[in-house]
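Researcher: Please predict.
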Amino acid sequence: MGLRNRIITDAKSWLWLTAVLAVGGLAGFFYYRYFGCRRACPLSSNPYLMIGLGSLLALNIGVGLILKPKGKNGQNGRSHKEETEWPI
């Protein structure tokens, strides 16, 4: 893969990661706004904490979609032969 393609691929990954964090932050804010309590709840009573937790939760879910390891055959590092044979 050439340098230009690698830079484009990396830029798409960073753009996807930024979008995932933004959506998670918005989800955390909406949870605070509509479901969070105002005084007694230590987590959902603080909007900044809920935005951060929403972003971390979205990052945790989204990283699996962004970072897909590829091996020599492009199928997560396994060849067809390795998937069909049972180790003894």
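Model: The mean pLDDT is 75.
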